[in-house]
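Q: I have two molecules that I believe assemble together. Could you output structure tokens for the complex as a whole instead of separate predictions?
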Amino acid sequence: MSERVVAAIDQGTTSTRCLLFNRAGRMLAVAQREHRQHYPRPGRVEHDVEEIWRNVASIVPAALRRAGLRPENIAALGIANQRETTVVWDRHTGLPLARAITWQDTRTDGIVARLTAAGHGELFSSVCGLAPATYFAGPRLRWLLDNVPGARAGAERGDVLFGTMETWLIWRLTGGPDGGVHVTDVTNASRTMMMDIRTREWSPKLLAALDVPERMLPRIRSNSEVYGTCTAVLPGVPVAGALGDQQAALVGQTCFAPGEAKCTYGTGAFLLMNTGTRMAESTHGLIPTMGYVLGDDAPVYALEGSIAMTGSLVQWFRDSLGLIDTAPQIETLALTVPDNGGCYIVPAFSGLYAPRWHPDARGVMVGLTSYIDKGHLARAVLEATGWQTREVVDAMNADSGLPVTRLKVDGGMTANHLLMQFLADVLDVPVERPLGSEAVSLGAAYAAGLAVGHWSNLETLRANWHRAAAWEPAMDPGLRRREHANWGRAVDRSYDWVEPS
Amino acid sequence: MPGTIQSIERAAAALRLLANTGRPLALAELSAALDLPRPTAHGILRTLREVGFVDQDPSSSLYSVGAGLGSLSTPGWDRHDLRSRSMNWADALAGGTGCAVFVGVPDGRVVSLVHHVFRPDGSPQRLRTNETVPMHATALGKCLLAFAPLVTPAARDLDLHRYTGRTATTPAALESQLVVARRRGCATGFAEYTPGVGGAAVPLRGAGGLAVGALAISGPVEHLFGSGGVARARLVDQLTAAAREISVTLGHS
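A: Yes, here they are, computed for all two components at once.
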């Protein structure tokens, strides 16, 4: 059988995976390998990109073996990746100059503070849509140029290249030092603080403010086009799709119409809403970002709201409090009581993210009485994810003018049906889970397959989306209002806990 | 009275030692404390590790009491752990068969639905997680009766209510269906609970092969069954393969 399939590489924070999808969007095989997390100092998190490249070279053939397929069966390769992770390497040797600085790393707080102090905050917000923050790639590149011996001189000579993870992998796959293609996808570029979000080109003003030589930057390309042909790992296969992981999930969930939104629930949660071909400014604490650009089609923008702690709060409940043995058992524990008993947990463990952005907040647990037992705490843990999502959705509705009318969800926490029902209850819209939880990889595969004509159009992809479960809102409106007000009062109590040092 | 089995006595002693010492132990310490040659002690510990009663740290090679021992007293898998471990394979099964997928566990005299994946055909469907269905009239229930006899009631103790003209309403009729299910390794339900709707179910097995739940596909009888009322082999093969994969995640070797 010579079935044509599309391969996706999901280069994630803890592991790299290769998945193969057939034309119906069904996963045929998966292979995965974790890579080491390097923590050289508090606040620093690094990855060895050589190790990640070796992992790619081993998992792709492994996935093919599992499916009984050969490189000739692969119509195209797409890449999803961990977005703001930053790497620099030598174009002649192919070797990185340092380990990659990952998106969780906060070493650039000094650079960001100086940009803001120098009065550049407004420039960045108006050109790239982002206020300077340690979250984004540009300041990391600046840090590498300032701190890695030879980096700046090499970059100015044209010997040192910059990229995010998809840039690195595409360059390696298409030949590396021997003719490798140096490109980045527009969604990752939109999160560097270096790209003009309206023209989708590198902004000379922002590069000057960051003091980054343009020579080292990759060309910005759409998310769905043939960047080049693999000479390694999948010889002859076109690399034809690349997106940041959350944008990939937006495509994988087929959120192709303005107002359609998806939320991926993992360690944290990322809610993205398609805002159409115009960029929605945010006055409510969301990040305007590229949604996707398919070849020569008009660009599609998105609003993004990130929640720091969702699954990680359940992990804390399991590992630090020891009240459950496994994460799924929080549902069992929560079902031992009918409601939260008046208890609320605000998980501002490292401040509050979207839409409130209070770095000086810390976690609180309020409403404790002798009545509260661990079942109520389990409820409060799950409800925190529900209410944090509600706040992001409220901000989306206000910023986009496109009310969310249903929410597509994916990620591990969708196994928790109590949480999904609560989510539908507090959002007052239906919550839907698609068949197959691999929205990120599927989105990368879709982008690549569209570019080579494996799929003809977006309607074909929509037809591949099947509802695996749906939760309808069932909460009394009065109760919803009271609980929402209680949550708000609980959040108020988390503010201003960290004293300025 | 026949004599005791020496290797079981030695295994019990090894477990007592690990449980009471309060720290992980090396093979040398265990063989010395049990007064056994090292190869003998190693064989006992390796077997205990295989069944999940002992853990061995991969880097230090030290032995400690395993999680499987703690779960001995619990009646089975936590239903939400079971759902979490079933989820990916249940989705793939629904996608491959075009059927709805359920995971069920015994709950007294009924089956409690732990997981439900919609039939991927765009039709309106309602999530049925945490609902219950009768044992005698569904593939899930008959699968549990056939393969998990210790945690399900006897056929004669069930209320054999007639839901459709096809429901088995006597213990003898039900028993004969269970015999067929055991022979085929798969229980089926042919419009016995809801007219027009059928199902096929196979056991999910944990450590030691114990049935801890059942995995079912469900859909219109004409979709599931071929001529002669036999479940289509293509569907049953996928169901069996998915159950095998889920069982591996539940500790079944």
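A: One point stands out. The longest strand of chain A covers residues 27-34.
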